[in-house]
Structures are given as C-alpha cells and as structure tokens.
Hints:
Elements: H1 19-23, H2 33-46, H3 56-70, H4 94-97, E1 115-116, H5 122-152, E2 161-164, E3 170-171, E4 176-178, H6 186-189, E5 193-196, H7 215-224, H8 238-241, E6 252-256, E7 259-263, E8 267-272, E9 279-282, H9 298-311, H10 318-321
Helix pairs in contact: 3-5
Amino acid sequence: MWIRGQECDPYRSGPYPSQEEILAHIPENLRNERFINFISKYLMNVAGRCYEEDYFPARVFKAGARWLERNQDAEKFFLVLDSFDPHEPWDPPISYRKMYDPDEDTIDFLASLYGRADQLSGRVLKRLRANYAGEVTLVDHWLGYFLEEMKNLGLMDNTLIAVISDHGHCLGEHNLVSKQGHPMTREICDLLLMIRHPEGEGAEMVCESLVYNYDLPATILARLGIEPEKPMEGRDIWSLALGKGKEIYDHISCGWGPFVMVRDRHYWYNAYLWGEVPLLYDLEKDPKLEKNIAQEHPDICEKMKNLAIADAGGEIPEFLKKLKGKPGCTPLLAS
C-alpha cells in the first residue's frame, strides 16, 4: 500500500493555499521561490486533515496493523513498513509540538534549509527543533500502536522485529540544518538499528560494533535458517549483538554523490572520492568532529580514500568520475 502526499509528491493540484497559510511557515528572509513552492505543495497535499489519525505516521502504522489482522492466521509472513516520517517537512499535530515548544510567538518553520543554520534566528531554530521532536514522538507513538496490535494478536512470541533508519539530519549542529555529503557528520551517519528476538535473546543489550544497514537482511535470513539463493553483501551480525562474536569490519565506508565517508575505530574521514577537500577527525580526542586534522595527516587521508575505492570495487566508477566539479548532494563545505 502506497500512501500518497508526502513532501512534494505531485498528489494534488489544488486548491492552492492562501498566501497567509504559506507565509505562516516561512521566515521573512527565506520567502523565495524554493520555499514558497515547497510549502504550498505540501499544504495542498495535507489539506483537510482534522485528526491525529489523518497524519502520515498514523496512516502508515494503522495500515500495517490492519494487514496483520487480515493475515493473522498465516503460518508465515514477512511485512515491511516504510515510514517516510520523521523526514521533513516536520509537521506534527500541534499537541506534539507543544511538548517541546508551547509558545506561539514565532514562525512555524517546518522545512530543512539545506544550508547554514545561522540563516534562522535562535527562536525560529528552536521551533524547528521542536517540530522535529514532535514528529519523532508522533512516529514513536504510532509505532507503539502497531506493536500493541502485534501483542493483541499474539504475534510477539513468534515474530522477529527489526527497526532501522536510513539517515539522520543536522538541526543546528555544525551550524547546519541539512543532511549533506560534506561534511558527512555523525548526525547524518550514525543510524538506528534495533532487533527484537521473540525468545528474548540479547534483550537490552547494546552493540557498538561497526556494521552496515545491508547487514540486516542477512541477519534476518540467518535467524530464520534460510540460505540465500545468491551471494549477499551483508553479513549476519547476530553474534555481535549478543556480545559473543569477533568484529566483522575494521572500517566502514559510505558514498553520497561524489563524496565518501570512511571511519574506523580511530578516525573519521570525509572528502571527494578523488581526495579533494579532505576532512579528518580523531574520534578518540574529538568525538563531535570539531577539529579537522587532515592537513597534519595526509598519509591517513590517503589510506582512508584508498579504503573507500577498494570497497567500491577497486576503482572510481565512470559515472562518478563525471561528477567531478559538480555540486553533488548538498555539499556545503566543499562548495
């Protein structure tokens, strides 16, 4: 089931919101074509909402709960729920936003800048962060609704449950309101992965190992005793989750447009694929990634760059070579 209307989905063509409705969500210094188009399209898509159940997280997780009810007698099932929220625009019901910012004395900004945070006043940034927190709380509530339905149907004792995120977002950290390829920060790349085993294996354990999001399918198949028909890149990480296995990866790498991030236990590296505009941080001394030491350690930068290229198959793909000199995915420092 595909629930339409998120962000700038061309879902509705009207009626067009009033200027007053649009400008209520845009600070004066940002009232340009980009934000006006973004907000107006979104407001068209969500026009007519009256109740919390009309918001996207509620619709997604209620649809999942209904699917469980229809299929509760199935011997086996595999269900994936993909919730776009808490992606921007961060637009929770007012009651959720008021948990974090009860006042009504500012513009109700709910979009991402994909730029410098100092374009916003401190007051507007506080409201934006409250909207984000409210959106996360809304998602948490309706995920809880879905899990409660699983409990009511007697599925918690025989079903493996996994929750994973795809990326984070800077909300003032590093003077950014964005997700970006450069700097590719911890706020962007440190992802959520939770797995609940129906028999309680590893309950309440926290694993700090380096893993990839594509390790999740391999881990699920292994728990089900299923051999994949074809080789998979992902690895079974369950022994790590239980605190019993050896580390699988001594580093991880992530590509975004023409940018790459590589980290191991000691360093965090971020640059163009070909090594330009390098950022290097010592994770032991600088866990918040505030002091770039790339100039002092060009040898480490070269090593990390080569690790990324090796992870990509040993050379930079031709299509990425063509991106050299092009903006890529919201590169802020690199620009």
